[in-house]
Amino acid sequence: MTPVLPPFPDGFLFGAATASYQIEGAVAEDGRGPSIWDTRAHTPGMIRDGDTGDITDDHYHRYTDDVATMAEMGLTAYRFSMAWPRIQPTGSGPFNEAGFAFYHRLLDELEKHGIEPLVTLYHWDLPQPLEDAGGWPNRDTAYAFEAYARRTVEEFGDRVSHWTTLNEPWCTAFLGYSQGSHAPSRTEPAASLAAAHHLNLAHGLASHAIKEVAPAATVSLVLNTHIPRPWDPSNPADVDASRRIDALANRIFMDPLVSGTYPDDLVEDTRELTDWSFVRDGDLDIVRGSVDLIGVNYYSSHVVRFNPGGQGLPGADGHVGGAGTAFPGSEMVEFLQPHGPVTTMGWNQDASAFHGHLLRMHRDMGLPLMVTENGAAFDDVVSSDGRVHDADRVTYLHDHLTAARQAMEDGVDLRGYMVWSLLDNFEWAHGYSQRFGLLRVDFDTLRRVWKDSAYWYQETIRTRRIAEIDTVPEGGTTPPTSY
Ligand code: PNW
């Protein structure tokens, strides 16, 4: 039974999220330049099964049908990212009119259907030449990002009013530059901390540029969540392990925005790696207060304990591949296998942690929030009736949307909820092995089929109430909608 909660208020945005490299394909078309993910994907052994994003969902050519499907599902918002190397192929040189033109065509379709675009400027596809010049550990990258953001908002500022600067800077800094499980696959702990700071600076610089060009725009930063619960809450060493992860994963991005400082404990925890001299006078003044809304990406919670030498044990923190640590300076923190049912990512399903996290972000940030990603990967199969009965995903979304609605009752100013993802896509180092979509994609034919979760979401949006988990797909036993 769904607890009795009031309907979602008018104006609450129901959407789905995607990212450019994960869905577009057409990597060499119309002047797009290579990004660090093209490089990683074409390096043997870096992506499961040798998969690449060369074609993926071919959304670059199928966006018209994809947007029509969003409209049929009832989505009132669509969160997507613009590919920096499509708009500015080398990351610092000339801008590419054909790249702008693609996003104009996409925005035309969204406008036609009354779907609000939520645009992310950077979802991990750094132009390769900027990486060749040092990447995010190089301070210049922050200024390159500012210039790209300014020009892009000049282009689209009259038709897009929600801009996100960066998606999950934690993943960029620590999976990309310390663990090496994401592009550019580097394992340099000290450099990853510089990258984190330059990402904060890039966000701040871009935020001011966006406001100069489009003063009425809403600017957000999207943060992924770590909820590190101590294995034994009565053991101070485990509590300290949890504090370390909270500093390195959450407060490293929250505190500069709210108070214009880095947490003292974080600086202390990482002192053997860096003296933080990459933080220059005035940097944090640029970052403080530079956001109107925080995007929250939530998938799962973690259990941690103090165990020198423990990190890197199998299944530990849900991040695959890479020879380095995702938590530089905190290698003594072990991530334990979470309790309860897990998704095919190995991530646990913990809606109550999500509720608690929304309350915490509301309390600590004092800003409106948007759930910019929430979803789950399962081994979906097409049944003999042609449908995808993804009951696990329906339950996951039902329970998490309920947690979000409850958080609103508890005082959180939550503006919308975006399912990750609209359609199955290229899941980074996991390739096509992880299916997060509301729509199933057959990667041989690129045919899309509505999963039961899509029908459940359609019903939820139609009624503005969380539909029961056994909601019958529209059309009963008729063949599923596909294209
Ligand atoms: C997010 N982690 O990535 C991204 O924003 C999406 O592009 C991605 O497809 C989605 O979540 C599902 O993974 C994450 O290891 C990648 O903690 C890794 C982690 C978290 C989020």
What can you tell me about this protein's structure?
This protein is an alpha/beta fold. It contains 15 helices and 13 strands. It has helices at 20-23, 36-41, 59-73, 84-87, 97-112, 128-132, 140-156, 169-179, 189-213, 236-259, 264-269, 283-287, 351-365, 391-409, 452-463, and strands spanning 13-17, 77-81, 116-122, 162-167, 218-224, 228-230, 293-298, 302-306, 333-336, 369-374, 414-420, 439-441, 448-450. Helix 7 packs parallel to helix 9, helix 8 (169-179) runs antiparallel to helix 9 (189-213) and helix 14 (391-409) packs parallel to helix 15. The longest helix is centred in the middle third of the chain and has 25 residues, at 189-213. The structure holds 4-nitrophenyl beta-D-glucopyranoside (PNW).
The proportion of residues in beta strands is 5-15%
Hetero ligands: 4-nitrophenyl beta-D-glucopyranoside
Biggest beta sheet attributes: 8 strands, parallel, barrel
* Number of DSSP helical runs: 15
Mean pLDDT: 95
Lateral arrangement of strands in the main beta sheet: 1-2-3-4-5-7-10-11
Portion of residues in helices? Answer: 25-40%
Rg over CA atoms: 21 Å
Please give the alpha-carbon distance between the first and last residues: 33 Å
Structural class: alpha/beta
Instruction: Please state the overall shape, judged from the principal axes of the Cα atoms.
Output: globular
SSE arrangement, N to C: EHHHEHHEHHEHHEEHHHEEEHEHEEEH
Q: Which spans have pLDDT < 50 for at least 5 consecutive residues?
A: none
